[in-house]
Amino acid sequence: MRRGVMFAGAAVVLAACMTAGLMVGAAGLPLKGVVLALADRLPFVSAHSGLTSLETGVLFELRLPRVLLGAMVGGLLAVAGAGYQGVFRNPLADPYLLGAAAGAGLTVTLVIVAVGDGAAVPLAAFCGAAGGVLLAYGLGHTATRGGGTATLVLAGVAVTSFLTAVQTFLQQLKVEELQRVYAWILGDVGGGWEQVVMCAPYAVVAAAILLLHGRLLDVLSVGDDEASSLGVRAGRVRLVVLVAASLATAAAVSAGGLIGFVGVVVPHAVRRLAGGSYRVVLPLSLLAGGAFLVTADLIARTVLAPAELPIGVVTAFVGAPFFVTILRATRKVET
Questions:
Q1: Residue 334 resides in a domain
Q2: Where are the transmembrane segments (predicted)?
Q3: pLDDT tens-digit map of 3-54
Q4: Does residue 77 sit in helix, strand or coil?
Q5: For the chain, how many structural domains are there in total?
Q6: Cα(203)–Cα(276) distance, rounded to whole angstroms?
Q7: Is residue 68 scored above 60 in pLDDT?
Q8: How far apart are CA 104 and CA 199, in angstroms?
Q9: In this structure, is residue 288 part of a structural domain?
Q10: CA-CA distance, 111 to 156, in Å (whole number)?
Q11: Is residue 132, in this structure, part of any structural domain at all?
Q12: Which residues, 6 or more positions from 258, have their beta carbon under 8 angstroms from its beta carbon?
């Protein structure tokens, strides 16, 4: 019953944040009008919202895809972060640990510098993020037989350093494109329906796989020997979770850019509130991550209106102090 109450509460919070995201902006929309306009799009439902054609266009062409994309990207980053933390047994692990951010940053920089086609950026980011993780995993697997978690982390650091160096070199070749590169790096969820449609299939598959592995991650948390005695193949579980978390990260990066701290802050806050069981942490992180990023985007759109603040700046303002708190708490536990 307690678990059901927590899930229901998280769903209500997400719905409230999404509703606020639909209502608030440069042109305010009434709650009743938004609800009736959304209901009117449902099958077998007819409702008069009272919104003008301009307001309806703002709702369905600008705000609704933005809110949906923000919820998807935030949920994917948070659930991927929780998955990484379960695999590496470290609350500071995040979705960019194995080179996803560096890979995406390199390919996006390459597309902007060499091609100049903004339409190719999402695909380039997805391929780069997936490629960075595959490179780190391959390097870690070949360095030591079996590729332990410590080796994977070191491989991720090496790949990240190398790819970041190549990205910096490319940026220096065409300095005039730096603004476009950094605008993407700081994050944006205003890509429209095209980004929502592109991201949704990967989001569903990755989230489903991670949620189905909550019980197995709980078993892994007691140790590999104990997990083996219970019939759980630790190596296989880690590989599946890493692949799913990396897929979620690649999809999120391709749709929203390199938005930091979501994958660390949200799972840690959920763990503090709801306990350490991954059967609870994973679904709550998915919901809370969506609510967190939708709220961050709302702040980014309104705090300097009519100008917009990059969403990555907002998450950093919230995440950096929280990250310090995590570090201090971890240090107290170790001592």
A1: no
A2: 63-84, 96-115, 121-140, 152-173, 239-266, 278-299, 311-330
A3: 889 999 999 999 999 999 999 988 889 999 999 999 999 988 888 888 999 9
A4: helix
A5: 1
A6: 24
A7: yes
A8: 15
A9: yes
A10: 23
A11: yes
A12: 96, 101, 104, 105, 184, 185, 186, 187, 312
335: in domain: no
* pTM summary value: 0.91
- Complete DSSP assignment for 158-219: HHHHHHHHHHHHHHHHTGGGHHHHHHHHT------HHHHHHHHHHHHHHHHHHHHTHHHHHH
Burial 230-251 (b: 16+ CB within 10 A, else e): eebebeebbebbbbbbbbbbbb
Per-residue pLDDT tens digits for 90-145: 877 888 888 888 999 999 888 888 877 667 888 888 999 989 998 988 888 776 65
Residue 14 · residue 78 · CB < 8 Å = no
Q: Token pair for residue 122?
A: 């999402």
246-to-52, 164, 324 alpha-carbon distances in Å: 43, 18, 25
Task: Quote the CA–CA distance of 249 and 130 in Å, as a whole number.
Answer: 8
CATH number at residue 150: 1.10.3470.10
Q: How far apart are CA 10 and CA 326, in angstroms?
A: 22
Task: Name the burial class of residue 201, with classes exposed (0-12), middle (13-18) and buried (19+) by CB atoms within 10 angstroms of its CB.
Answer: exposed
| Residue 193 structure tokens | 């329906």
Q: For residues 66 and 285, give the distance between their C-alpha atoms in angstroms, rounded to a whole number.
A: 20
Name the token pair of 169: 């070199």
Q: Which domain holds residue 194?
A: 2-329
